[in-house]
């Protein structure tokens, strides 16, 4: 079975063709970074127009890369939300049109389900597992029990972890996207021997019962510290503040995940792994913190390769394959995941 996936819910136009043997026959991602960078964040109108301008050519390139003709596809899957509605409409309309013309099933895939199942595409974990989904728009802990069976144990009450990185980077003047910029600045601070605790940034929710997250207080504290330090004429310390921010986020993610593992450990069957997915899971310091938590529970930490952690279409095509194999074709509804915009 070979499924074409389309992802257009944010600022990546992506097309992939994946088969049921977990092979990525084509896996293309076009980033719109340079188009949004002057605005310091994603502009929905620009994103939608850019998807519209690129998607048809990207599909043609994916088919050429896979050495396939359109009629050799078994189904078309597209992200149907949550996301920026203009971009989602472009991908869904294109996917439906192809499915109609080729007389193949169309699968409306929840973007979060794509992230949730990406670790089954590579490296191929078995159900059930605990998933920490940390991206620009979401921060959730889910017990993934099967295709379409997701039990949410915790979520953010305000910002997502990726948002904390992005807004933090904006406050510190480190540019967009924030995550990689903060990680690099933090690495410089670490190499310079800066102590992150010296900045006294809070670690919201740490040690509290339950598995929810909160990051907005951290952002406010960072802004205050940055202003104080700027008033002192000492903003070259921004690398130190980036390190402090990253340490706080890593500590909070690890603490909340540990709580979720304790809550999920009692349920049967036993978890096979702790899986970290979403753009923030690309952060090496966060992986290290989660590794420690997983080890304490005698579980492996599984993180899909970075390319599958950030937005991509292979995970959407793969979710389509999993849905087809499970006999579930109406995918973008329910499932216990939350749907912000569709
Ligand atoms: O999963 P993703 O590509 O898109 C969403 O669905 O949101 O995640 C993007 C987010 C952004 O907030 C970005 O700053 C963050 O992931 N991110 C990182 C890193 N790489 C990307 N955060 C921390 N460290 C990184 N290395
Ligand atoms: Zn995403």
UniProtKB/TrEMBL annotation:
Belongs to the KAE1 / TsaD family. It is found in: Cytoplasm. This is tRNA N6-adenosine threonylcarbamoyltransferase. Substrate binds at residues 133-137, 166, 179, 183, 283. InterPro entries: ATPase_NBD, Gcp-like_dom, KAE1/TsaD, Peptidase_M22_CS, TsaD. One of its GO terms (molecular function) is iron ion binding. It comes from Hypericibacter adhaerens. PROSITE patterns: GLYCOPROTEASE. One of its GO terms (cellular component) is cytoplasm. Residues 25-318 form the Gcp-like domain. It catalyses: L-threonylcarbamoyladenylate + adenosine(37) in tRNA = N(6)-L-threonylcarbamoyladenosine(37) in tRNA + AMP + H(+). The gene is tsaD. Pfam families: TsaD (PF00814). One of its GO terms (biological process) is tRNA threonylcarbamoyladenosine modification. Keywords: Acyltransferase, Cytoplasm, Iron, Metal-binding, Transferase, tRNA processing. Fe cation binds at residues 111, 115, 311. Required for the formation of a threonylcarbamoyl group on adenosine at position 37 (t(6)A37) in tRNAs that read codons beginning with adenine. Is involved in the transfer of the threonylcarbamoyl moiety of threonylcarbamoyl-AMP (TC-AMP) to the N6 group of A37, together with TsaE and TsaB. TsaD likely plays a direct catalytic role in this reaction. The keyword Nucleotide-binding does not apply. NCBIfam families: gcp_kae1 (TIGR00329), T6A_TsaD_YgjD (TIGR03723).
């Amino acid at each position: 079975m070979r499924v074409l996936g389309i992802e257009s819910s944010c600022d990546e136009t992506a097309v992939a063709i994946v088969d049921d043997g977990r092979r990525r026959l084509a896996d293309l991602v076009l980033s719109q970074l340079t188009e949004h960078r002057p605005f310091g964040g994603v502009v929905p109108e620009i994103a939608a127009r850019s998807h519209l301008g690129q998607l048809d050519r990207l599909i043609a390139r994916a088919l050429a890369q896979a050495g396939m003709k359109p009629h050799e596809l078994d189904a078309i899957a597209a992200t149907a939300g949550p996301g920026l509605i203009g971009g989602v409409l472009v991908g869904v309309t294109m996917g439906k049109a192809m499915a109609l013309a080729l007389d193949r099933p169309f699968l409306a895939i929840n973007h979060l389900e794509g992230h949730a199942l990406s670790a089954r595409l590579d490296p191929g974990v078995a159900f059930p597992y605990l998933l920490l989904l940390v991206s620009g728009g979401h921060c959730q802990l889910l017990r993934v029990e099967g295709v379409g069976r997701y039990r949410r144990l915790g979520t953010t009450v305000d910002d997502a972890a990726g948002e904390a990185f992005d807004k933090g980077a904006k406050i510190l003047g480190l540019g967009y996207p924030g995550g990689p910029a903060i990680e690099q600045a933090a690495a410089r601070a670490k190499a310079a021997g800066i102590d992150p605790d010296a900045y006294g940034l809070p670690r919201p929710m740490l040690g509290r019962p339950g598995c929810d997250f909160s990051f907005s207080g951290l952002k406010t504290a960072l802004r205050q510290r940055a202003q104080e330090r700027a008033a002192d004429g000492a903003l070259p310390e921004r690398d130190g503040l980036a390190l402090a921010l990253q340490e706080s986020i890593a500590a909070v993610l690890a603490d909340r995940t540990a709580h979720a593992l304790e809550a999920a450990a009692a349920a049967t069957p036993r978890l096979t792994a702790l899986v970290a997915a979403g753009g923030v899971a690309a952060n090496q310091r966060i992986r290290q913190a989660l590794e420690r938590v997983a080890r304490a529970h005698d579980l492996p930490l599984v993180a899909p390769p970075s390319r599958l952690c950030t937005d991509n279409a292979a995970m959407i095509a793969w979710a389509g394959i999993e849905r087809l194999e499970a006999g579930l074709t109406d995918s973008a509804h329910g499932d216990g995941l939350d749907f912000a915009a569709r």
